[in-house]
Write a structure and sequence with these properties.
Blueprint (H helix, E strand, L loop, with lengths): L21 H16 L6 H18 L3 H15 L4 H18 L2 H17 L3 H18 L5 H13 L4 H18 L2 H17 L3 H18 L2 H17 L3 H18 L2 H17 L3 H18 L5 H14 L3 H17 L6 H14 L3 H18 L1 H65 L4 H53 L1 H16 L1 H4 L3 H30 L7 E5 H11 L1 H7 L2 E3 L7 E5 H17 L6 E9 L2 E8 L6 H6 L20 H12 L4 E6 L3 E9 L5
Parallel strand pairs: 2-4
Antiparallel strand pairs: 1-3, 4-5, 5-7, 6-7
Length: about 725
């Protein structure tokens, strides 16, 4: 779900017009004294009710019509957190009065708020009409500061239907204008909303990037409502990335923040996110608890926009419990509500889940029809057009990055020129000083010959100081040159890495889409002997893409300093056993035998996740380049305070030139396995970095045609 922008009324304030009646003035003063004396500090809902009652009292005595409009809008804002119907009533009153007195600012603000409230009431048509009217009035006023928020919200409303391209274009328009105006609130919303489109096209890494950008802005502004929303969505995207620990932490942060803002709309969203988290963990009792909480909040506050989402979540829960008939009934009910609301937000997921339910019930024809419906919905959204707009947007962002790097290079060049100028000036000053010093020395030598030794010592001391200063300047200049060279090397490494990323990460998806398209489009294939080959191809390609993506993510985290080393006792037997089980299907397919000694008593002191990744990549390499019916042998021995672990295969091996290029990011080593498996060499680079981080070393011995032997060392864990 996209995020609406309500930036124009974040700060609540009281206003009292000049009062002509002394008695009336004293009544207002007493009213506000009572308000602040009785103000409950620990109950935000009660605080809102006190504020609303106080504003209602103020509006009854306020004579300034424009201030009355503003107060109507303030009351509507306070009601919006838990009573949408009341919010609509007061915002409509504000709009009516603003139109009567021709108060354009108040009129625009009322349209803006009404748009937001109609959206929460699931009236998209009215929401769009009011937001477009707000845009017109703000533009007529010559006030562009509110337009990023208008564009953000229009993008959200259009995203409910099939006009996804128009929605995305509004978000990009909001982002560009917010950047130009340095309007941080709308910039945060635009980042988040664009991130949802990356999530839609399964670019979850880029979605995470834009969600984190939104959170950074929200945190800098201490906007608790939006911080809670960012936490919820970071939790959801981390679930999609299978980072469940990170997802859990973000959802807990969202729950803590929501206790401070009391936003019941987002509270429903949070409970649904918790439900899906526990659904992924197959903890069905906890799923039911959180769905019930969401339903309870909905029954109390009637946020119609979320009604279908809650029903769909309950249907997913019943599907997990294998109550297929009941789940299908709820899916149909959710579809009916989405259609009534003129939204397509969750229809693709629902029809896909319905297909799973029909398949489990053995009703393959109905499952096929459900998948067809899901594809029709996807085609109506025109994903190719969305991808094209995102591509153009990403190209613009890349151009901005290039401009930033160019400016950085110019700054470095300017610093170098300043250093050169400083060095020239130093030499010039040194020359002038030397000449003056020489004249003084000769004069003093003639006039004070008797004090020659004393003066000589003083001169030698001065000369030493000057030489030290000269040496210091030369060292500083050398350091600047070294930093410049290092920056060039880093840029070269980065370019090489991106070239690997751009080429190899795309290949698995092309293969997956190609094989999947054949299976979907050609019904005869499903009943032919080729079907198993296609399924095996899809599995191998998905595994290859997953391993490459996992390596890329771990490598990028290590390069940006976001990964720490946490040494602990690690059982070699457990790690190797886990990874042999992980590759069980591939080993079985290629008929490869893995021979390992008794590893029960071998433990190393290292980061467990890193050791697991090292073993997985090296074992994957051995399997990839082993011939069918081959043999992989695992050996281990102790040398000093290290265990040396060997993984030896009798596969295709490597020549010395290939061996010399391993473990280097700037050297491309791309070879196909014996079954056509793809490789990039990035896994070995990551292995070397992680082995080194844990105090060990890694090396390889290989003969072409006879096989390879990869070895690495890790510190022995000794009980004391």
């Amino acid at each position: 779900m996209k995020h609406l922008d309500l930036s124009f009324h974040n700060n609540f304030c009281f206003y009292i017009a000049p009062l002509k009646s002394p008695n009336l003035k004293y009544k207002v003063i007493i009213l506000f004294c009572l308000f602040f004396l009785l103000h409950p500090k620990n109950n935000l809902l009660a605080q809102n009710e006190y504020k609303i009652d106080s504003l209602k009292a103020v509006i009854s005595i306020e004579t300034n019509k424009e201030r009355q409009v503003d107060i109507f809008n303030d009351i509507a804002d306070l009601y919006s957190l838990y009573q949408i119907d009341s919010a609509l009533i007061y915002a409509e009153q504000g709009l009516k009065l603003a139109e009567q007195i021709n108060y354009k600012q108040g009129e625009a603000d009322s349209h803006f708020q009404l748009s937001y409230y109609y959206d929460r009431a699931s009236n998209v048509k009215q929401a769009i009409a009011h937001m477009e009217k707000a845009c017109q009035v703000y533009t007529a006023l010559g006030d562009s500061s509110y337009l990023p928020g208008c564009y953000n919200n229009l993008g959200v409303y259009y995203s409910y239907g099939t006009e996804q391209k128009k929605s995305l274009e509004y978000f990009i328009k909001a982002l560009e204008l917010a950047q130009k105006l340095n309007e941080t609130y709308s910039l945060s919303e635009a980042y988040y909303n664009i991130g949802t489109f990356y999530e839609y096209v399964n670019e979850n890494g880029l979605a995470l990037k834009y969600y984190q950008k939104a959170l950074e802005i929200d945190t800098s502004q201490n906007n608790l409502a939006d911080i809670s929303w960012s936490f919820i969505n970071l939790g959801n995207i981390n679930m999609k990335l299978h980072r469940f620990d990170d997802a859990w932490e973000y959802l807990l942060k969202a729950r803590k923040t929501l206790t401070e803002v009391r936003d019941q709309y987002n509270n429903i969203q949070l409970n649904l996110s918790f439900a899906y988290y526990f659904l992924e963990k197959n903890e069905l009792d906890s799923v039911e608890v959180h769905i019930d909480k969401a339903k309870e909040i909905y029954r109390k506050h009637k946020f119609e926009r979320l009604k279908a989402d809650i029903i769909a979540a309950e249907a997913d829960f019943l599907l997990a419990k294998k109550q297929y008939t009941q789940s299908i009934q709820l899916y149909n009910k959710a579809v009916e509500i989405y259609n009534q609301q003129n939204t397509t937000d969750g229809l693709w997921d629902i029809y896909t889940s319905k297909a799973k339910a029909f398949e489990k019930m053995g009703q393959l024809d109905r499952a096929y029809l459900a998948l067809q419906k899901a594809n029709q919905i996807n085609d109506a959204i025109k994903p190719n057009e969305i991808a094209k707009v995102l591509g153009e947007f990403e190209q613009k962002e890349a151009t901005k990055d290039k401009l930033y790097h160019y400016r950085l290079e110019q700054e470095l060049l300017n610093q170098k020129e300043e250093a050169d100028l400083l060095r020239i000036r130093s030499k010039f000053h040194y020359a002038i000083f030397s000449i003056v010093f020489l004249v003084i020395w000769i004069t003093l030598a003639v006039y004070l010959y008797v004090t020659k030794r004393k003066n000589n010592k003083l001169l030698e001391s001065n000369l030493t100081t000057i030489n030290q200063q000269k040496q210091l300047l030369e060292e500083q200049y050398q350091k600047l040159e070294e930093r410049e060279n290092k920056l060039r090397e880093l840029n070269a490494t980065k370019d090489k890495f991106f070239s690997i990323l751009a080429h190899d990460l795309k290949n698995p998806f092309n293969t997956l889409m190609g094989l999947s398209e054949i299976i979907i489009s050609d019904k005869n294939v499903r009943n032919s002997d080729q079907f198993d080959e296609f399924i095996e191809g899809i599995f191998q390609t998905a595994l290859s893409g997953y391993n490459l993506l996992e390596n890329l993510l771990e490598w990028s985290r290590s390069q940006t300093g976001n990964i720490g080393v946490y040494p602990q006792p690690v059982s070699i037997e457990e790690v190797i056993g886990t990874n042999i089980h992980f590759f069980h299907e591939i080993l079985k397919e290629k008929k490869i035998e893995v021979v390992a000694p008794d590893l029960k008593n071998y433990k190393v002191l290292a980061d467990k996740n890193m050791v697991n990744l090292i073993v997985r990549n090296i074992l994957n390499n051995a399997i990839k380049f082993s011939f069918p019916e081959g043999k992989i042998e695992l050996l281990i021995h102790q040398k000093d305070s290290f265990y040396i672990i060997h993984v030896q295969d009798n596969g295709i091996g490597m020549n010395p030139d290939t061996v010399s290029k391993l473990f280097k990011i700037d050297q491309a080593v791309q070879r196909n396995g014996t079954a056509g498996e793809k490789g990039t060499g990035l896994g070995l680079i990551l292995c070397k970095e992680f082995v080194n981080k844990n105090g060990g070393d890694i090396w390889v011995e290989s003969t072409k045609g006879k096989g390879s032997r990869f070895s690495f060392s890790l510190p022995v864990f000794n009980k004391k």
